[in-house]
Amino acid sequence: MAFFNDNERDYVLAVVRKLWKSFRRQISIEHIHKLDKIIRGGVIEQVYKRDKYGFNPVVRTLHTAELLHDNIAADVSMTTAVLIYNLCRSGYITEQQVEQNFGDDVSKLVHGLIKISQLYKKQAAVEDENFRKLLVTFAEDLMVVIIMIIDRLGLMRGINSDSDEKFVRDISLESRYLYAPLAHKLGLYQVKSELEDLSLKYLQPDVYRKIALRLSETKQRRNKYIDDFIKPIKLMLDKEGIKCHVKGRTKTINSIWNKMKTKKVDMSDMYDLFAIRVIIDTPVALEKRDCWVVYSLVGDIYQANPSRLRDWITMPKSNGYESLHGTFKGPQDKWVEVQIRSERMDEVAERGLAAHWLYKGVKADAGIDRWMNNVREVLEEGHKNRMDLIRNMHMNLYDEEVFVFTPRGDVFQLPKGATILDFAFRIHSKVGCRCTGGKVDGKNQKINYKLRSGDTVEILTSSTQVPRLDWLGFVVTSKARNKIKQAINEAHTKKADMGREIVQRRFKNRKIEIDAATMSRFITKKGYKTITDFFVAIEEEKIEIGTLVEEYLDFLAKTQESAKPHETAQNFILQQRESDDNKSDDDILVIGNNVKGINYKLSRCCNPIYGDPIVGFIASDGAIKVHRRDCGNIKHLLAKYPYRIIRSQWSGKIGKQFAATLKVVGNDDIGIVANITSLINKEGDTMLRSVSINSTGSLFEGYLVIGINSLDSLDQLIKKIKNLKGVKDVQRATH
Questions:
Q1: Which of 106, 141, 159, 504 is the most buried (most CB within 10 A)?
Q2: DSSP string, 350-419
């Protein structure tokens, strides 16, 4: 075989013998002959070709098969798929032929591996968590993912002497951001650690060599130190009758480097270069107490560092992680971290709410975490049939999701049924609001086109496009729906504000005060469900503003008009005020011809206070509504219903407080509002009821509702406020 050099030939023969020895009781001679015939045929017909980096594909596949055998005890189907996958991808044999010769299991694995190879043509960002999920979706079978991880480990070992720096860097980055986290999720901890360490070795060789040298120099001494540290702890706990197991470890090179960067310390200053874990077998009701007992016992042996105590059993982390971490000074004055937890806490940290990969900062979601926990348990059981159990764990976790690419290769996760518009809003709200459609794999598609996993989508936009109500009929993501509703509501509100301004301007020109309660009833009578809808109709010119004013004035009058016409105010039967033992019989108002005891109300549209020139208007129920003479509403009522007007005046008795509103404008300086409110509160006959402040640039505008007993008191208060530093203007507001 000229295709192999001497070293490669020796390696191939050694691996074949190793695999044959392992599988000879599980594999038929016929299977061996078929496999040998296909592989030899591929070599003879030069289907196998060294890649541009010089790797021999036969050697690499055999190396992957060997690593699978050593790390997870791969079965015959997985090993066969690894050995013939490249021949099927190159077209030398078909998937149908694979199924005919080796069965459905091998065919499915080969199909999954081919599908994964197509994924790389998309050139997605492998650092993206969605890339991992898409890879899982495409793989279809757990064993495909395992093969990929193990194959990557073999590749990482093989590029040690490669001279192509870009190739080495790209492979290392993929291993760090894609394969190592997947290995960790599957419980392949040794594989994960080696991938991370090799990535560091190729990406930052100087750092790797420095740490490796330090660890190598101290390995024997370090292992002895850990054993010596654990021994007295175990003896003490056994003596106290505490059931537990204690284990020690040294951090990997990659984790040491991460800690050095995060904490900005040298190796010699790291508190947890050694880590000891004490796991207690104790009932849930006693676990917190027993953790503290163990902490105390360890503290009797070694000096504790109180500043390094981390109590995550009293206050667990947000992800559910519970453990008591202490740092103790062991022999030779070296600091060692001791993690104390119960069996339940350890289970939660490893498999539950705070799955170990999440605790270490690797993103995960609940669905894949639950599934991976099950897979991990299968892998860790160690029985001979675990590969048969894994075979039935199909990867349908993301059947309800699709993963699509941008033209740049970024990948996004969306729910099944998501459209181009959903994708546009996923990118950015502004892109979604301006979206007119998109190009999917180069073809123009409508805005409601449903996306499929693997689609490459380019969003098309227009500056004239605005969100429409019918968009809510086909988008499926909550973000898209919320943003569409928000945009529509904002446009609606903007129109309403413009309509409100039109109404206020027209009423002001007519010198008519708008009573909010009356306007609200008027709008309801017009058939509008909300005030906003009413003002939008004004802006859209569905209501003629001139006609509206007259209709409002008529409605205002009719709400206060009796059922029968009256010629003079004397025809009305005035309501007598009900007696109240808790109130004085003295009136502050005299109605008509010096009549007291009449039921009256101070009108809210102008809020008259003691001292204002006033006039009364007789309502249909005989009650009197008292207005200021300069009130815009009373002027209209006087013109239309002069017979309903009745003379009113203050009686000269002061004591009751009236509500008055002041509009204050001033510089938006620190303390100015406090100075105003302080001044008001110091006035003996004045009470501050409410404050509303709005700032615009360097100025503020505030409305103060105060309780005051007379117009003279109000005038004096206004003068005092005007004299305050920073106040530019003070006026009495009409309502």
A1: 106
A2: HHSTT-HHHHTT----HHHHHHHHHHHHHHHH--TTHHHHHHT-B--TTTTEEEEE-TTS-EEEEETT-B
Amino acid at 281: D
b/e code 670-704 from CB counts within 10 Å (16+ = b):
eebbebbeebbeeeeebebeeeeeeeeeeebebeb
Contact call for residues 168 and 204 (beta carbons, < 8 A): no
For the cut 80, the answer to whether the pLDDT of residue 502 exceeds it is: yes
Tokens 């991990």 belong to residue: 376
Distance of alpha carbon 579 from alpha carbon 597, whole angstroms: 9
* Separation in Å, CA 126 to CA 180, 311, 402, 413, 640: 12, 36, 17, 14, 79
Per the structure block, which two tokens stand in for 39?
Answer: 């592989």
Output the pLDDT for position 353.
38
Interatomic CA distance for residues 39 and 83, integer angstroms: 8
Nearest alpha-carbon partner for 184 in 351, 388, 341? 351
AA identity, residue 544? E
C-alpha 298/C-alpha 521 separation (Å) is 77
Work out the average pLDDT over 471-489.
89
For residue 651, the 8-state DSSP code is -
pTM above 0.70, yes or no: no
Rounded distance, CA 237 to CA 296, Å? 11
Report how far residue 693's alpha carbon sits from residue 685's, in angstroms, rounded to the nearest whole number.
24
At 693 the three-state DSSP class reads strand
Which residues are bridge partners to 688 per DSSP? 706
- What pLDDT, on the 0 to 100 scale, is given for residue 261? 84
For the chain, the residue count is: 735
> What's the CA gap between 416 and 570, in Å, rounded?
77
